[in-house]
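Lay summary. Proteins are chains of building blocks that fold into shapes, and those shapes determine what they do. In this project we predict the shape from the chain. Here is one chain we studied, written as its sequence of building blocks.
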Amino acid sequence: MAFIDKIKEKAKADIKTIVLPESEDDRTILAAAKIVEEKIANIVIIGPVKDVQDKAAALGVSIDGCRIVDPADCADFDTYVNVLYEARKNKGMTPEAAREILLKDYLTFGIVMVKNNDADGMVAGASHATSDTLRPALQIIRTAPGVKLVSAFFVMDVPDCEYGENGTFIFADSGLNQDPDCEQLAAIADSSAKSFEALTGAPAKVAMISHSTKGSAKHALVDKVLEALRIAKEEYPYLAIDGELQVDAAIVPSVASSKAPGSEVAGHANVLIFPNLDAGNSAYKLVQRLAKAEAYGPMLQGIARPVNDLSRGCSYEDIVGVVALTAVQAQM
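And here is the predicted shape, written in a compact code that computers can read:
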């Protein structure tokens, strides 16, 4: 069974409610129809009821199992105004401003629904920048207790691949933090290992990726990865982690035996932590396009409730997959 099919089965075992606020995007409507058809999650679509229904009809799909919420005609609107006001009043928010934001900004409306426990998570980003999804999530839901920073990962499912966990990997950070420092890299490694184990049920084996393996190159960028590894081992001693490793040494046993003999992680890594966003984002796109991998994300980790981003180049099938992943995160 493919990775995403296993995730869907997990999602079906304990149905959660996920908000899709981008009702203006055809992919949102197509995904919503597929999700309710497969009974992966309960779906809330934000937007004018007739507009959403007309779009579904034009696309030839049924969204009868979805709840459509129009902010302009919502029985809980005053409650949501107060939730937003209370969350942001120390930053100058007024009830009048909160009302105006919630009428116009469907992403913020969805976040407030999650904050108010009227939904278990939200997925957006098909037609918005990552910042549009992340900003209200951090402002209203905020980070989970004990989390040092929010980061983003992609679940990569590579077909016919003997590496990783039967071809399944987490690549991080591949969507958010541009140039994390040593402490942030270590924190990303810890969060990503936890995400991998929660989603796959398999032990995480974390590789700190570099252009160098075990001292084969000398550079400040290598030093950064080595210091991140030292911090990770000190602060998160339960992690199975090693570095610095080139990608081939991280995932290919025969290469690891030559470049990093004796390492318990090298050659078997399933969580790859990249030194910066240039590397992580490029890696996921290369694997997605050249290896025909399924790429789910960017998934956000470290927020108190599940809120996940989408690539603006995503398909509606990608949205279905990320909703399933978000539902599983909500179960935890």
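What the prediction tells us: The domain at 3-142+306-331 is CATH 3.40.50.10950 (Rossmann fold).
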